[in-house]
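Page header: ASSEMBLY MODEL / three components / 574 residues total.
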Amino acid sequence: MAEPPAWIVLGRLDGVPAAALLDASGQERERITLTDEGLPAWVAAAEAAPAPPRWVWSDATVWYPRLLAAGVRVGRCHDLRLCHAILRDSTLVPAAEDLRRATLWDASPVADSAGASTLFALDDVEGSSGAPDGLPAAVEEFGRQRDALTAAADPGRLRLLLAAESAGALLAAELQAAGLPWDPASHDRILTEVLGERPAGGGLPARLQDAATRVRRELGDPGASLDSQPKLLRALHRAGVLVESTSRWELSEHDHPVVAPLIEYKKLSRLLSANGWAWLDEWVHDGRFRPVYVPGGVVTGRWASSGGGALQLPRQLRRAVRSDPGWLLVVADVAQLEPRVLAAMARDEKLADAAHGRDLYSGIVDSGAVDTRQHAKVALLGAMYGATTGESGRLVPRLRRAYPRAMALVDDAARVGEEGGVVSTWLGRSSPPPSPDWRASQVRASEMEASRADETRARRSARDRGRFTRNFVVQGTAAEWALAWLADLRGRLAAIAPVDASAAAPRSGPVFQAVPHLAFFLHDEIIVHTPQDRVDAVVYAVRESAASAGRLLFGSFPIDFPLDLKVSRTAEKE
DNA sequence: TACTGGTGCGCG
DNA sequence: AAAGCGCGCACCAGTA
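Prediction written out in full:
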């Protein structure tokens, strides 16, 4: 075709990969049959064009890891599975019946034996043309999604969301391919310092064993089981510690000699079982931690992770995150992302002003709404999470007086949720509707013969759902801001010139070994692994992309997103 | 033996 | 024992 294709849909046809070339209006112009071996080179050639296409495929986890392994990176994609989930539920889409019928696209990806993802192929699903990675099914679904977008109430926002979500899909695969540089020797040193030497045989490391012995002595029970909650609880009762749970919170309020060693035991035991030597052996290979990121894995749009506990890297172990020789880490997070996003969504200029160019909580104190930074923090968290009791619950009304617009936004979201309604983020991701059980219990409670218990239960579950929708709009929009930040940053990093082979970091894989690349992402924090010589360009890119994300979502509304940014060989936070 | 639910704790 | 959102994981106990 004369014009370069605006979109290229990839899918399988008769068992081999094939491509449908679409023009800007979505018309299919040409269909090309490819081979598995030839696919990476063909994609690379198209990607090298002056105006590369946006790749359309069933699922980045199916297509992209193979390309990355072959040394091919793509700039932009449209991930049909992730976009389907957004459009299917978004209240901005007036008629999503076609999308809802195409239930094939609701299947979750599953890893095959080689570690690559594949989708369940359900032959009997209505309204589909075969498996979702089949070319006809992909072309059809892309058509449905384009139609849905055309009919949408605010296509601009949704288009932005779909692009950001798809960029996230690319990035998740890239993060896994590049990995987080991890120094097993540092990790081992930390474990040895805290727990004692790694035991050669079965037993516990010395310091953990020692804590266990002291706990048993104070309990007066040499055989006490410390890892079984019910048994530990009974042992505590026998020793006169009348707690209702074995949680650290409750234990620490009791003045008994068993408390200190027990808390120590729990701390050490946690480190050993969650991130001990077994974790190190399983998850760190060739100097890289490669967790599985799951974009869109949380209903709010946040990413989830699967395996390795990527979203719970304990602060204790951040010293083990260590750049390769000649390389550095740029570690950046956004201070108080959620309340800033709330201020911008609500167009609350007073809250935005408190957030301007400084610590938002101090800004609230300066405005006179509350007296200390700590109070500002618990009050604001309480407002976003729906606290009703305790210190937080008591402080929220002061915030309501000081920032009525922002507080009205979250209060409205809570009310809609309690009534069984659906709320949406700034860019149009909608909350799931209430479950049939939830509806049934509300209906039951409203009937004449409803018991007191029915009413209490229904009231409680209504409140629970209200807190969920209250938080959904803020957490979800914060996730959108973060995706916009990442997507923009990813592009800026790709434009930085590579270093030559002598300065490369081959363990980051063929695509990333000579260029600055994202190595970690966690809700509001990123880590970039970069050659020393490129660090200035990276810091500039990180800052510019944050500013750009704010403008992209909120236009000229005066809200800023200040970064805490550090350049270092490790990912430690002070 | 394989599952599910509860508990507790790490992260944002 | 958190109060107040969203997760993943390890471990144990009870059940199929």
